[in-house]
Design goal:
Elements: H1 10-15, E1 31-33, E2 39-41, H2 42-48, E3 53-55, E4 62-64, E5 74-75, H3 77-90, E6 94-95, E7 98-99, E8 118-120, E9 125-127, H4 129-135, E10 146-148, H5 149-153, H6 158-163, E11 179-181, E12 186-188, H7 190-194, E13 202-204, H8 205-259, H9 268-315, H10 318-337, E14 348-354, E15 366-372, H11 375-381, H12 392-404, H13 422-429, H14 435-438, H15 458-465, H16 471-474, E16 505-513, E17 525-530, E18 535-540, E19 545-550, E20 555-559, E21 570-573, E22 576-581, E23 584-588, E24 594-599, E25 609-611, E26 617-622, E27 625-630, E28 635-639, E29 652-657, E30 663-667, E31 672-676, E32 682-686, E33 699-701, E34 707-711, E35 716-720, E36 726-731, E37 740-746, E38 750-755, E39 759-766
Antiparallel strand pairs: 1-2, 1-5, 3-4, 6-7, 8-9, 8-10, 11-12, 11-13, 14-15, 16-39, 17-18, 18-19, 19-20, 21-22, 22-23, 23-24, 25-26, 26-27, 27-28, 29-30, 30-31, 31-32, 33-34, 34-35, 35-36, 37-38, 38-39
Family: Belongs to the TRIM/RBCC family.
Pathway: Protein modification; protein ubiquitination
Keywords: Antiviral defense, Coiled coil, Cytoplasm, Immunity, Innate immunity, Metal-binding, Phosphoprotein, Repeat, Transferase, Ubl conjugation pathway, Zinc, Zinc-finger
């Protein structure tokens, strides 16, 4: 597409799809132009006409069909001229594969002419060498431009040939159109000029174009201005959507921070709030996408009309410009008069309502409020304001809160809590937990620690000592905002939804190193997979080895790999092992014999490998799509997650499969976790604040379909439901995680996590119904 304000070249018009019909996808034949300035073959339009109307296939505008049929639509002389030039470059009579001379048969010779070596641009004839020499020597043709035929076919003389083209009169073959009848606005040749337009004022084509070009250029400038307004509206819509996402991230982080100190039995409300936040953001994004599609559609229609008008004015001959002048002017006026910038929908930014301190299990400690952001407030957003449409009292409270360095507690009537009581109130609300109470071991999260041996939180101490009747004395209403929020919140001890009893819980099993006496370098684990009963296979890329370990940490030997290979991702199949190394996919037997290898795309640094649940096929991520190979090395299927519309938009760095046959991958280009079925249809996708701004890491799936996602930068493993919705934290730094790298699920019950230092932790996944 030609950019706004620039003039297209003749080479672009001839080499692009401008001369192709968008219906039959072939070169235009008898081109007819609709009032919306889109051009199609006459026969193709006849097939679309129904009930006296037809819809433009590109802009979907309904156009009435003239009473005489589609043949009465305006003939596009501009396109016809370009088509004549294209046909002249590629056509001609052929003899033994060479073009023949057009003059030799006229000189009395039998049969066809000799082989052509030149072309007259004025006569539009191919000439042999003898006729070309004679053509230059006659009185009538000595001024004609005769050029080399090879150069002409190569396009060297397209500009000169275009300048010498003349539009032919459809009523008088052989006569060029030379005049414009002003009352009739009709193009005329010399024969047409005599009758019935003899008494009508007529202008030569060049003079008529000079008179009418300024009007068209003024209309074109108006449409260019409307295009600028559309682009500005689209940019504003995207900025509003970006602000919404940033605020959602901030609010999600606030939810994480505030929820850390709250009593664990009440933390299920946190997930309700995050679910409400995700639903609001998804609904707002859907509405924004619809508005963006509308804006882009209008922009595409206006840009297409402007590009067509600009092509005609830049490349068209006088007769062609005048023949299309009425249609272009009508279309440009129509585009100018239509409403261009629909008002943006109100953007409701979520705000966290924090009400801690109540011990009633039915109390809502967290909630969301939504405030409409005005244009003035949106300008203040970048200056550090997070309040949206705050009242003066709220701004004052926020300023006081910022000076205190955290959340400003308030009493029921809105007055600030006395300074000497603020520390105690913060502990009661769970906003600040003493350091000595936060230093918990991994066993605190429900692993194997007896209840009487676990340190109590301040809320638990207060709940144990406060009688039911005295609960109202402790009841306060807290409101405030965090003015500065860290991107990496403090790791919460244990699973956020453990109190709800709905999700699996980790039970620490064992930990062991993977460095063996023969290793020359520190291990760099890039792949893990189950290997037989209660065994795992470890891909050590640094030492170029596939190591076998039991779940208890016993070393079982190694699977030999081809010399020079550094295994990256690994998967175990029925009696074979598949792994990626560089830009190749290998399938080897357990004793190291190579059964086959396949070359992969060089555009991806590493390729994730996963075994299908059946065990007889292997899936590998290649440049945004997934390829599945059978045991013989044949490509069984290939798909792009989300379909061809997402071609080039995804980069699956980690990949696994679920027992249900779905694919789960970490998409670094979209910064999301995507779940799709065996046909590539996306079932679910998560890219919300639960990722903490990190790129998603390794993924594993248990026997019930729960997804375990590694977040290396914040030392976490989070859990998602089978459709990709975030449920909470599963492992944190309190479980001994230090930059987790790769995970795998063994027997659907044991989660194996490798760290950056080469250590492996094994956790038993305890299901809620066990």
């Amino acid at each position: 597409m030609v950019s706004q304000g620039s003039s297209p070249s003749l080479l672009e018009a001839l080499s692009s799809d401008f001369l192709a019909c968008k219906i039959c996808l072939e070169q235009l034949r008898a081109p007819k132009t609709l009032p919306c300035l889109h051009t199609y073959c006459q026969d193709c339009l006849a097939q679309l006409a129904e009930g006296g109307h037809l819809r433009c296939p590109e802009c979907r505008e309904t156009v009435p069909v003239p009473p005489a049929g589609v043949a009465a639509f305006k003939t596009n002389f501009f396109v016809n001229g370009l088509l004549d030039l294209v046909r002249a470059r590629a056509g001609g009579d052929l003899r033994a594969g060479k073009p023949a001379c057009a003059l030799c048969p006229l000189m009395g010779g039998a049969g066809t002419g000799g082989p052509a070596t030149a072309r007259c641009l004025d006569c539009a004839d191919d000439l042999c060498q003898a006729c070309a020499d004679g053509h230059r020597c006659t009185r009538q043709t000595h001024t004609h431009r005769v050029v080399d035929l090879v150069g002409y076919r190569a396009g060297w003389y397209d500009e000169e040939a275009r300048e010498r083209q003349a539009a032919q009169c459809p009523q008088h073959p052989g006569e060029a159109l030379r005049f414009l009848c002003q009352p009739c606005s009709q193009l005329l040749c010399r024969e047409c000029r005599l009758d019935p337009h003899l008494d009508h004022p007529c202008l030569p084509l060049a003079e008529a174009v000079r008179a009418r070009r300024p009007g068209l250029e003024e209309l074109l400038a108006g449409v260019d201005g409307n295009l600028a307004e559309l682009e500005a509206a689209r940019t504003a819509e995207k900025e509003a959507l970006a602000r919404l996402r940033e605020q959602a991230v901030r609010v999600g982080t606030q939810v994480e921070e505030v929820a850390e100190g709250v009593l664990r039995a009440l933390l299920a409300q946190k997930q309700e709030v995050l679910g409400q936040l995700r639903a609001h953001v998804e609904a707002a994004e859907e509405a924004a996408r619809e508005r963006l599609e509308e804006l882009e559609g209008r922009e595409q229609v206006a840009r297409g009309a402007a590009a067509f008008a600009r092509r005609v004015l830049s490349l068209g001959r006088e007769a062609e410009i005048l023949s299309l002048e009425g249609a272009i002017a009508q279309r440009l006026r129509q585009l100018q008069d239509c409403p261009w910038t629909p008002g943006p929908a109100p953007c409701l930014l979520p705000q966290l309502e924090f009400h801690p301190g109540l011990l009633d299990k039915n109390c809502r400690l967290l909630g969301l409020s939504f405030e409409e952001q005005s244009q003035k407030d949106s300008g203040k957003e970048g200056a550090g304001s997070q309040g949206g449409d705050e009242t003066p009292n709220q701004r004052e409270d926020g300023a006081k809160s910022e000076r205190q360095g955290g959340i400003q507690p308030q009493s029921r009537d809105g007055a600030c809590t006395p300074k000497e009581n603020r520390a105690q109130t913060a502990q009661e609300g769970g906003a600040q937990t003493p350091k000595e109470d936060r230093a918990k071991t991994p066993q605190e999260d429900g692993a194997q620690t007896p209840k009487e041996g676990r340190a109590q939180t301040p809320l638990e101490d207060e709940g144990a000592q406060t009688p039911r009747g005295g609960r109202s004395n402790k009841k306060r209403k807290f409101k405030g905002r965090l003015k500065s929020v860290s991107r990496e919140p403090s790791p919460a001890p244990g699973l956020n939804l453990e109190g709800s009893g709905l999700l699996p819980r980790p039970i620490f099993s064992c930990s062991f190193p993977t460095r063996m006496p023969g290793d020359k370098r520190s291990p760099r684990i890039t792949g893990l997979c189950p290997f037989g009963p209660r065994e795992i296979l470890v891909a050590d890329e640094q030492n170029r080895a596939l190591k076998r370990f039991s779940l208890n940490g016993d070393y079982k030997g190694a699977v030999p790999v081809p010399e020079g290979c550094s295994p990256c991702s690994v998967a175990a199949l029925q009696g074979a092992v598949a792994f990626s190394a560089g830009a190749r996919l290998y399938l080897i037997s357990p004793d190291g014999e190579v059964q086959w290898r396949r070359a992969l795309s060089l555009s991806q640094a590493s390729h994730a490998v996963a075994a299908m649940p059946s065990g007889d096929r292997v899936a590998v991520s290649v440049s945004g799509h997934v390829e599945v190979y059978n045991m013989e090395g044949s490509l069984a299927t290939r798909f792009i997650p989300g379909g061809k519309a997402n071609r080039g938009l995804r980069a699956l760095v980690f990949l696994t499969t679920s027992p249900q046959g779905n694919f789960v991958g970490s998409d670094w280009q979209q910064n999301s976790v995507v779940v799709c079925d065996g046909l590539g249809q996306v079932i679910g996708e998560y890219r919300g604040p639960g990722l903490h701004g990190c790129q998603p890491g390794s993924v594993s799936v248990d026997k019930k379909g729960y997804i375990f996602l590694t977040l290396r930068e914040v030392n976490k493993v989070v859990i998602l439901d089978p459709k990709g919705s975030l449920l909470g934290d599963f492992l944190t730094a309190y479980h001994g995680l230090e930059k987790p790298r790769v995970t795998t699920m063994v027997d659907g019950r044991h989660l194996v996590v490798s760290l950056s230092n080469g250590t492996i932790h094994v956790f038993r996944v305890r299901s809620p119904d066990s």
